[in-house]
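Re-run with default settings, no changes from the original entry. Doing this only to confirm the output is reproducible before filing.
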Amino acid sequence: MSRSMGSITADVAQVTLDSIGDGVISIDLAGKVTYLNPAAENMTGWSRRAACGRSHQEVLKIVDGDSHEPALNPLTMAILHNLTASLSANCVLIRRDGQEKAIEDTAAPIRDCDGRVRGAVIVFHDVSATHARALEMAHLAKHDALTELPNRLLLNERLTQAMSLVRRRRTSLALLFVDVDRFKRVNDSLGHAVGDQLLRSVARRMAVSVRESDTVSRQGGDEFVILLSEVAHAQDAAIAARKILGAMDVPHHIENQDLRITVSIGIGVYPADAADADTLVRHADIAMLHAKAAGRAQYRFFEPKMGERAVERFA
């Protein structure tokens, strides 16, 4: 009767393991695979027949997600230390076909009735979708939804890093505050949908007018800020500004019509024009207002004499 009940219990356990959505792999003391459930077969790309008897490190190939160096296998740790073990953060499983899956897991030693370790079992599940959503949310938090450019938050991070770098190198960086001239007229006459397409077109042209190491960001509305992460001379910023002005000379073809627009650009240079990020942005903004007051479609460098009163007057 006892053997019969034991057989039924084993059958129930087998059905349970075969039915759950998490992958399950067990190994013996030699580190050889003794069992995979269907979920583990699907995630690793190994069939039970092909995997059994092979090294668990071959079947459950785990690497660091950044370096792709082999990661500590929890099955090995569970046997060595006779304790429950888990993967370190940011590990991925390399399937038999080379595909990668982010996983989370827990491994535990298998003990006999006398408490002696006879092997180990690992339970793991695919978290690729969760990681992808987390990355997407992180991207959305730091990028403008309309243009996909970095937003104010990401610009501030990069500006702070760039300022620290140029201080060590004793060089300079420049900030360009760019405003689309008379953009309100486009929205009022052609609608916000056309205005949005125009902003995306402006963003693309600015992005290709600067270096890959520079940052083009959208502050909101029709305002953009460009970080030139390092400049040898202040006039390097003028070269970039002229490229942007030239890029806007070509009409923007939107919904079967050519739209001609211009931009006004203010330039602030660090550390010559400001000692901190907020002041640098404000000074570049002031210089942009002077460019508008001078007739638009041009650039101006910040000068101390511009001052806050000029801002009020231009506004």
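The two ends are 93 Å apart (CA to CA). The first strand starts at residue 23 and ends at 28.
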